Amino acid sequence: MEARFPGHRLLPYILIFPSIAVIIVFLVVPFVQAVQQSFYRTSPFGTTTLFVGLDNYAQLFSTPEYVRSLLTSVGFAALVIVGGLAASLGIAVLVTRRIRGVGFYQVAFIWTYALSPAVAGIIWALLFDPAVGLGTYVLYRITGYRINMLVEGVPALLIAAAAAAWNMLGYNICFYIAGLQNVPREFEEAARVDGAGPWRTFWRITFPMLSPTTAFLLFVNMIYAFFQVFGLIDIMTQGGPGGATEILVYKLYRDGFIRLRVNFASAQSVVLFLMVAAMALFQLRVATRRAVYSR
Amino acid sequence: MKRVVVVVVLAVLVGVGLAQGKTTVEFWHAMSGSRLKVLEKIVADFNAAHPDIEVRPVFTGTYEETLTKFIAAYRTGTAPHFVQVYEVGTQTMIDSNAIIPVYQIPGMLGETWDWAQYVRPILLYYSVGDNLWSFPFNSSTSILYYNKDHFRQAGLDPNKPPTTWDEVYEYGKRLIEAGVVTNVLSFGWPDWQFEQQLAIHNYLYADNGNGRAGLATKVTWPDPFSVKVFTTWTRLAREGIFLYGGPEYNANSAFTSGKISMLFQSTSSLDSIIKTANFEVGTSFLPRFSDEPRGNSVVGGGSLWVRKGQSTAELRAVWEFFKYLSQPDVDIYWHKGTGYFPATNAALKQLMDEGWFAQSPNHLTAFLQILSGRQDTAASIGVRLGPFVEIRDYIRSALEKALAGTLSPEAALAEAAAKANRALQEYRSLVK
After folding, report:
1. pLDDT digit string (tens) for B119-160?
2. pLDDT attached to residue A110
3. Are the folds of B2-140+300-353 and B142-297+378-431 the same?
4. Which of B254, B248, B289 is nearest to B184 (CA)?
5. Where do the DSSP E strands lie in B16-134?
6. Architecture label for domain B142-297+378-431
7. Which parts of chain A fold into alpha helices (H)?
8. Within a 10 A sphere around the Cβ of A97, how many other Cβ atoms?
9. What is the mean pLDDT of residues B238-257?
10. CATH says B2-140+300-353 is which class?
């Protein structure tokens, strides 16, 4: 440090202090408190506190709900990430072609990202309302099957995942368009001269060239599917029906803030932290390293 | 010129002095939609009539959110002076050690107050022993709403709504076969409708007299009656008659848009339903099982709780507002604008005298239902549980599982009961 700031031994520490302070106050302290809380049981108004040791954790792993919630989260995230990214990539490829009115299409596909999750949630919840939903009606006309996302778990999860992926579509498309524009035309032309069809060109040239974008989007979408869909779930299903859309972060909220079991929710947040930390490490180490950055 | 300046300065000083003499009290509530406007008008009128008091109403989200926010605010010392809590939170508030029971307030201010003026079922619900703990405000109960036009189209008598569950089934079949609707019946607050069914047949929900004689240790279900309720609903759903409509007021739009013909919902939706529906709305008592005993429908809605640790001036301001709410004219305005019960006997008499119930008989339905039922058993007065919010969540989940066919009615209830009993046991470990 001395070398970069000659004669100012303290300056770098002073400059970095605000960031460190913010991290300590808003991340480290609450986290330590959460860990501490997870060993206690407190009455709603905080008048009585009992030390219960690992009881909250024991309850977490002895009840089938938590495991179910974990599986729901994984399933939900898989749907949102795989479905969302595949659709975004497909659309991005289409809207980067030389066609008339391409600017209009690009904007038309990107604007969903401008909607807040609350608005997106209301739109989709109304669309699949069992009594008055347009989507419900159209589906019934086509297939004869009357979908009821308020009662049936699997349709509810699929609809919530579709809404989540749809809301994120614009963001993903944006990045894929940028990525596609950076793929040098010469490579594709060379491949075409060598006799490769468009399908083969895409998978052998374009897709590998996009791997840094894909790696980044995988990471962002994972965070999105695990944490940020909270508002969407709250508006669309509130974790129902029968807990079918109760993903980890939503279960944590319901246990902590609706069912007023703060300590049980703290234990969940600690477990969730460990899981996400492990996933993030894995992503940074494996997925990012395997992406092709060089040209 | 100098004199003018002096006068202006004095006027400003007096103004500041007056402003400081004003007592401001904060009021958190969960009244949204058309209810919000009615409430805000009442508060504005009160503030205009009391220049030394300012009640500041703050909408804090749903009932669940309002309770959560109050708890969080209390723990950090930023709680409002009084708060609206739904009936589900009653036991939590009683055990909170954060409130002043309202029956003590007149005495603290050197006044007396006649608590017997409030409508009896409301008084009974919010009392511990003989003492009222929270101030009666927005009380309701659940009633049957039905579409009279649909009944006519199906060849049914629009003045004969179903009285029993057998008739619900029979009428439902008729309405579907006549092609009037594809689904017939839905519920608002499904978890609460389950409580209502137990109560109107005089069955307990939890031990220790529904948690009123002492903290409950266990829920009563799954017993043969609760299984019967779940089985009936599941069968109606399979036949397409019952359409599950989600929590709270979500099912209202299906009814007001004519997609279904019957709805169980709180009386507090009466005014918004009448205003939104473009058909003739009928109301009646909740259907029952003809071979089961009689109880009573139970009070729902909310009441006002006073936070402890406020100055005498603030407490007096809150109390003035409460007294204002109990004035017949204010109470009547609230009732007419929302459909909630008028809370006092005097308001009720005045409404009757002016012919209101003859003019709008739908406003009388809930009242007749609750006043004609029995009020001498714990089962018919209502449930009071510490972790009630949590337990309702489990019951709703159980109903969703039973309706989807994931679990049998009995297994769904048993699963919810295990969670509910665990919650009751945890709650007792913290309170006792």
Report:
1. 999 999 999 988 999 999 999 999 999 999 999 999 999 999
2. 84
3. yes
4. B254
5. 23-29, 53-59, 82-86, 99-100, 127-128, 131-132
6. 3-Layer(aba) Sandwich (3.40)
7. 11-23, 29-37, 55-62, 64-78, 84-95, 102-110, 117-127, 134-143, 153-181, 185-193, 198-201, 207-209, 211-223, 230-236, 248-253, 262-282, 288-290
8. 9
9. 89
10. alpha beta
Residue A4 to chain B, least CA–CA distance (Å): 45
Contact B431/A43, CB-based, under 8 Å?
Answer: yes
The shortest C-alpha distance from B398 to chain A (Å) reads 6
Q: Closest by alpha carbon to B339, among B359, B371, B367?
A: B367
Residues A102 and A100: their CA atoms lie apart, in Å, by 6
Residues 6 or more apart whose Cβ sits within 8 Å of residue B206: B216, B218, B219, B220, B383, B385, B424
Alpha-carbon distance values, A260 to A159, A266, B388 (Å): 29, 11, 10
Of A131, A243, A257, the CB nearest to B397: A243
pLDDT band at B2 (very low <50, low <70, confident <90, very high): low
> What average pLDDT does the structure give for chain B?
91
Ordered structural domains, chain A, with CATH: 59-290 (1.10.3720.10)
pLDDT classification of A291: cutoffs 50, 70, 90: low
The residue ranges of every structural domain in chain B are 2-140+300-353, 142-297+378-431
Beta-sheet pairing, B142-147 with B135-140: unpaired
pLDDT band at residue B1 using 50, 70 and 90 as cut-offs: low
Flag whether residue B248 sits within 8 Å of chain A, measured between CB atoms.
no
Residue B39 CA neighbour count, 13 Å, CB half: 19
In the three-class reduction of DSSP (H, G, I as helix; E, B as strand; rest coil), residue A83 is classed as: helix
Q: What is the pLDDT of residues B47-60, one digit of tens each?
A: 999 999 999 999 99
**pLDDT tens string A128-166:** 988 788 988 998 899 888 888 888 889 999 999 999 999
Confidence (pLDDT) at B13: 54
B253/A contact by beta carbon, under 8 A: yes
Q: State the amino acid at position A226 in one-letter form.
A: F
